[in-house]
Amino acid sequence: MTGMKVVHIGFLGCGNVGSGVWRLLESFGKDIQHRTDLSFHVKKVLVRDINKSRGIAFPEGVLTRKVEDVLEDPEISIVVEFLGGEEPAFTWLHRALESGKTVITANKVAFALHWHTLQKTAKEHASGLYYEAAVCGAIPIIHALEDSLQANRIDKIFGIVNGTTNYILTRMSKNNESYDDVLCEAQRLGLAEPDPAADVEGLDAAYKLSILASLAFHGRVPFENIYVEGITGIQAEDVRCGLELGYTLKLLAIAKRDGMSVETRVHPTFIRCDHPLANVSGSFNAVYLKGHACQEMMFLGRGAGDMPTASAIVSDLVRAASAQKHLYPTFDNEPIPAVALKKNMDWSCPYYIRLLAKDTPGVLSQIAKAFADQGVSIAAMQQKGGQRDGRVPLVFITHSAHEKAMQQAIHGIPREIATMESMIRVEEE
């Protein structure tokens, strides 16, 4: 093809996503060439075991166990990283950028924790740094925030950004199944890792929220500034009660900005059943945001998997290879920015509270007083079920209250009067 540019690339790792990128380039490469005048040639693939069966007929000499074969080959201009985790991924990405190579990564952990260092090195060496696949797989949310939505001040983001937890909560909601049963099934189907902690404890979503919030609010939002609570304590009874009250339970990544004050949190959240995110089921991901000009928007799609993530990687390959000059986010991406966004850990929202209360006169007034003493107003109260060992289950929905006041109110209820079984935050916007 006239004017076609051949781009030599190297892989760091070749698991499911790396194999997906290889297959996509093999099967769709001619279409990409036709559309872009770019031909991608994978010259080296770093693996731990060269003899492992991967279902791919790699040409002789492509697989290597030496990272230097990727990082020190002058012909390789783009390094694509599939390793996951913080190390050695960060160290190798940093070395690639120092040598002037462009980096493309799907690694939300290394990127969220070391973005400021990687970006500084990339700018110093005129290297490209691309990370669309680090958040929400095939959904082009990074490109949208960096480019398409530049004419907006983003005030709010609600994200379902972890497919494993969304699958679990969807099954619990639709089939009234327990958390443990659904998790075991998800592991059997390969939708959850043998050690699912990063997913079910909310850490995966928090890394992604750090990236999204930084781009949306045009300021660095460190991972350590995000409140994180997973779904391991969620009970089928609360999912069922929520549905009866008109709410669907999701693990939401939430970011809101008010001036220079920013709240960022990941936790189980009740949203109204008519909210656009309520019907995002199974392992799908979605990001719902509000900009002052575009108003409400939602991005929906496959947030994980070899081919959806490969789609985002190859999109970055095309973007990087086509760039006359690599661009970087323009906010102050430093460990301690000169003008920093202020962390707000005392956010305000309604709350769902389920208590087991002593079945005697006067108990309700004591509970109501504990709430009132902290300025927490009760919007609705229901008794859910009959007496259990002299206690009855009570469910409260509060009006919007501050997090610290809610915590103090709960601690102000004597255990001999009532014990808290669950507290779930509610978003009604």
Task: Give your account of this protein's structure.
The chain has 429 residues and is α/β, with parallel strands linked by helices. 34% of the residues lie in helices and 27% in strands. The strands form 3 sheets. Strands 7, 8, 9, 10, 11, 12, 13, 15, 16, 17 and 19 form an 11-stranded mixed beta sheet that branches. Strands 3-2-1-4-5-6 form a 6-stranded parallel beta sheet, with helices on both faces. Strands 14-18 form a two-stranded antiparallel ribbon. The radius of gyration is 24 Å and the shape is elongated. The chain starts with a strand and ends with a strand. The model has no long low-confidence stretch (mean pLDDT 95).
Key traits:
429 residues; alpha/beta; Rossmann fold; Dihydrodipicolinate Reductase, domain 2; Alpha-Beta Plaits; 3 domains; six-stranded parallel sheet
Strand and helix map with partners:
Layout: E1 5-12, H1 16-36, E2 38-46, E3 63-64, H2 68-71, E4 78-81, H3 89-98, E5 102-105, H4 108-124, E6 129-130, H5 141-148, E7 154-160, H6 163-175, H7 179-188, H8 197-200, H9 203-217, E8 227-228, H10 236-244, E9 247-258, E10 261-272, E11 284-291, E12 295-302, H11 306-322, E13 342-343, E14 348-349, E15 351-358, H12 363-373, E16 378-383, E17 391-398, E18 401-402, H13 403-411, E19 418-427
Parallel strand pairs: 1-2, 1-4, 2-3, 4-5, 5-6, 8-10, 10-13, 10-19
Antiparallel strand pairs: 7-9, 7-11, 9-10, 11-12, 14-18, 15-17, 15-19, 16-17
Helix pairs in contact: 1-11, 3-4, 4-9, 6-7
